[in-house]
Specification:
The complex is a heterodimer of chains A (474) and B (551).
Chain A: H1 4-8, H2 13-25, H3 36-41, E1 47-53, E2 63-64, H4 69-74, E3 94-95, E4 101-102, H5 110-114, E5 118-125, H6 133-142, H7 154-161, E6 174-176, E7 192-193, H8 206-209, H9 215-226, H10 228-243, H11 246-255, H12 262-270, H13 272-295, H14 309-321, E8 328-333, H15 348-367, E9 374-379, E10 400-406, E11 436-437, H16 438-449
Parallel strand pairs in A: 1-8, 1-9, 5-11, 6-7, 6-8
Antiparallel strand pairs in A: 2-4, 3-4, 5-10, 9-10
Chain B: H1 2-21, H2 40-51, H3 57-66, H4 68-77, H5 84-92, H6 100-107, H7 118-145, H8 149-161, H9 171-186, H10 191-199, H11 202-207, H12 219-233, H13 236-248, H14 254-264, H15 273-282, E1 286-289, E2 298-301, E3 311-313, E4 316-318, H16 327-338, H17 340-354, H18 361-373, H19 378-387, H20 404-415, E5 418-419, H21 423-431, H22 449-452, H23 457-469, E6 476-477, H24 494-502, H25 509-525, H26 531-543
The chains are: A alpha/beta (474), B mainly alpha (551).
Chain lengths: 474, 551
Amino acid sequence: MPDPTSRRHGLSRRTFLERGALAASALSFPIPLRTRSTQVQNEPPSVLVVIFLRGGQDALNTIIPYRDKTYHEIRPTIAIGAEPVPDEELKGVVRLDANWGLHPSLAPLFPLWEKKSLAPIVCCGSPHPTRSHFDAQDFMEYGAPGMPLKDGGWLNRYLRLTTGRRGKDDDLRAIAMQGLLPRSLRGDYPVLAVPERGARRAGEYLDLFDDLYGEDAARAAVSGDKQKGDKQKGDKQKGDNEKSDKKGASKRGKMSGDTMHGDASKRLEEDPVVASGRATIETLRRYQEIVGRATRRARANSNFPGGHLGPRLEDIAKIINAGAGLEVACVDWNGWDHHAGQGGEDGRHASMLRELAESIAAFFTEIGEHGKRTILCTMTEFGRTCHENGNSGTDHGHGGSMLLAGGGLRGGKVYGKFPGLEDKDLYQGRDLQVTTDYRDVMAELLVQHLMCGKLPADFFPEFRPSKAGVGLFA
Amino acid sequence: MSSCRFFRSVRILAVVGSVLVQSALTAQRREPDDPTPLTETERIQHVLSRFGFGATKERIDEVRAEGIQAWFEEQLDGAAKETYELGERLRELSTLKLSAADLFASYDPKNPGPTAPAKERRDYVRLRETPRRELLASIVLRGAQSNNVVHETLADFWRNHFNVDIGKSNLRLWAVTYERDVLRGHMCGTFGDLLEATAKHPAMLIYLDNALSRRPPTKGELSAVRESARARSKSKERAAEAVEIAKQRGLNENYARELLELHTLGVDNGYTQKDVIEVAKALTGWTVNQNPKRGEVGFCYESDMHARGDKYFLGRMIRPDKKNPLLEGEIILRWLERHSGTAEFIATKLCRHFVADDPPEKMVEHVAATFKRTGGNLREVYKAILDDPEFFDPKHYQTKFKRPFEFLLSAIRVTHAQIDDPNAVLEAMNLLQEPLYAQEDPTGYYDTAEAWNDPGVMAVRWQFAFRLAKGEIRGLRIPDEFYKGLHPRIPRVWKDQLARRILPAGLGSRSSETLDLMMRRYLADHPDPKREELAPRIVGLLLGSPEFQRQ
């Protein structure tokens, strides 16, 4: 891990203030700045990649208490492996320690465990009792169980909190590899949702809409309404642009970073469609530039699987490798709601876990040395019932699990207190307890990995951090 | 086919001709904060925006001639005459009319296996996929061309409210009757009938797993399992294992939970986990027969799966009725249908869909009161929305962000685009993240701008707008007739002429001035512009403009 303080103090106080003021005035998204000097000085930032497994990922068949007799009893058709007999070779699970093992499909993650770069957390989740997918997901992504927040997801709040601190706001600080943003990234800080597959070519239409969604258009329109003098000036500017290369001219206009006409920025702020269109143009251009740079680099010998996750993690890896200022990347993965036909060593859950593990393994191969500054974590809204149901599946539960992998972690250890699986040990007699609040994990990732500094007291509203912390970092 | 194309062309020519009689000036869009009441034309445009996938000149005239109320009544009756062409297109989709039994008999072929000849395998896939393909095509065609457009917007609402995913199990067969008999069959009837029809339809029973839910085994059954396993295996351990497996058989809460959370009361609205379990118990045995040899395919009751005993729901007891074992589940549905929480939840969702992301409280109360007063008569509920004074409040005019479904259908409607291949539209829905009938989450697709208006999203809309305008989408094209009547000598006014057709509510002053600037710039470089190049460019910009993203 690079020394975080070098990044933190890389900027002079004056630059910091300028940036802050500028960012605050800059519509609802930052005006790109081109100050090469600070870019060169700064080391690339730490990266957090969040994979949200939607539907309630079954914790108990992911990180498995394979020695627990009850585990095998209450999951007669879907438990993994036979209960181990002392001194006999363990069947099924990938053994981590004397109590815990990974689902066999997660075997590709074992090398990370051996390198002490894998940190599973058991009995982890939200203290809120809801078993509704949609509420539970909202609560988790807003970092506010029971209190749906209006001002954005936890990662968007992080981005806002650190706006201007790094002089990195001309970079693509955050990205979601899907057509729509996850809630964790929604909010005032503009984050790019990268359109999928065929839609990536959509970039060629950006220039055409530059004016309809642009600052210049806003200026022209507003001055047309209110200030004739400005309008003439605006027209003259347009006239100049006409003569030069259209694309270059508009780009220069954007990169100049001059402050905007007050009325126009107000107008734009009031119109979320225009703001979204404008953010689309800004961030998608930046994305294309970065990915274009990245594809020219030699590729590692990684082996991303096809399917849902692999191609998305591959794109994220490209951006990280390009040395751009990426700090946060998110991928959603639906379909973990296995009420029926979940299966054990084979079946739907097993094949999804395999894709998960192979993608993560390939991701760390691909980013190589950058793995030291990157942590990937999986989340889910809740775990599932400990007992299997009548359909080789499980119903909505409570406590879940998280998998963390990457540099800087004190890995090679299973985190979280595990009360056991007897009925009396379970939440409401049926689900895993939550012994680690997910916000404690988030807080450590933000403070000790992304180095965001001390979190404001209300960053996670009404949250009391545990005294000891999770202890993920040395 | 070719003769019907000819008639269509004649019709469009007539339509376009009438547009051009109007002045060539762009309609002035009202300022966002203008508090003056909507004019009659604006009211008509507003109704057509929210209940009609966008206003076009001829629709506006149609509503003006009949009056908004009378037009809406006629629409709720589904009484508007459909075009010959749409009738023909739908008739070609022969699976739409079939019963579930016929669908199973003809479209559930046996898999020939991986070793079969390629042609046989292709035929197998084609046959198997026909019901899905034709159902999705019919929704696209009706959405884009039906004259009973209010029905299309209502079907869209209920399809999301009672969401099922056509990709699960064999829903490709069940979705045909679900859409036709359940959603469209009851969406203008009572909510209670609609709810019960969904609860008893195989598509829902399979999608939310109720078809699999069963009572836990009795002690007697467990010992019988032990005996038979011991007799078979001669092993005590095996017998114990078999008992453990048998013990796990039981309830699946999936449907019961979503019935309360998503279909009726709304999340955590006065019910507990225990209520979820009791509902699940009452509905055990509500399952599906999919084997034609065992009788007619469809909903069936399996008494052996049913959990006996009294049920307690929302603090009240339900006694089983031996003569009518379905009754306890039906009683729960009836309570839910009459619960004031349901009236409020449905009213909120309808007002959010048809009025505003943050629906006005008073209006929701009014609509919920109508729901309660009329026993969930949905026709009256829809009319209550339109009758509410808030509906035409200027603050809602042209403010609601279009979902991808609404964006695409309105783009097709205003440009009179011909759908030669409905897949072209379905693929666009996929790219815009709203694949039809394929939402895995039982919430259906969200109805607010917050869920759709992300940075990056607009790029895909712009791409669609330009590819449609330039004729680059295979199977979807704007007819040449659409461009007829553009001023032959003054291309400067094309922008205004086309804006009138695509955005009858007008362009905002900023967009209008920006487009004028762009026109001037273009005409400076191209003093003698070609219609085929400039006009599609304008159409693409209009469809991609901020104004067109709203309704």
